[in-house]
Amino acid sequence: MQLCIFNPEHDLCLASGRAHYLPPRxxxxxxxxxxxxVMGTLYPAALCCSAYSLPPAEMLRDCTAVxxxxxxxxxxxxxxxxxxxxxxxxxxxxxxxxxxxxxxxxVLPLQPDCRAIYSxxxxxxxxxxxxxxxxxxxxxxxxxxxxxxxxxxxxxxxxWIAKTVTTQxxxxxxxxREVVADLALEYMGSRFIGYSLFRTGSGVYKENILWPDxxxxxxxxxxxxxxxxxxxxxxxxxxxxxxxxLGVDLMACADGSLCVAEINLRHTMGMVAHxxxxxxx
Length: 281
Fold this sequence. Notes:
The protein has ten helices and twelve strands. The chain is an alpha+beta fold.
């Protein structure tokens, strides 16, 4: 029996880094409500559930494979406590490496306009040349861990930067852009799955737009060149260490250019949308 687990709180768990992390109630309710709809689309023949609605221990002992939305130390601890055999779970060393790779600084080579900063003073220096920035916590997701800076830092901004540097090593500074669309490259290890197009608001995912790959590629002429650049970087830096699902989020800007936003070493809603598009065709 293949057990597929929907844990949309994955990014929050990475940010915490703790084995005993308890995500917010809203994240737990989302996982409980949509586990079958999301993971069942990706793996229709599997037993799908959330980490908060696991089968009894006797059923878990019969599992032959476990496929979560994303692996993290908190999920591993939860599954061990529920009775899942250790042999089906990744090592702590693998999970620590996965968390390291998910740190936003990893993808900076694909983001020439972004940089890591280590103090409020560095942020203020950036504002002298460019007044509008987005500051991002290196481990964050679902719109959390983002601050929009306009012209000057507030006392709250300075405190947030100092605290984030202490807990997550740095802050990633990204210049504000006129973004007209959000899209992604979806992979399983080094195998390209397809493109996805989606909507966001203030950094929060809203929904996918169910366009086929051909339509997405036609709408964004720079996409093929960006894909080649991303895949060369993935082959050198990520897929030798990680062979699971991953998505690379891109921003389409008003001037026709594409910029890398982030990498997600987990399943994505774009993969779910891609399955739905294929079902329709």
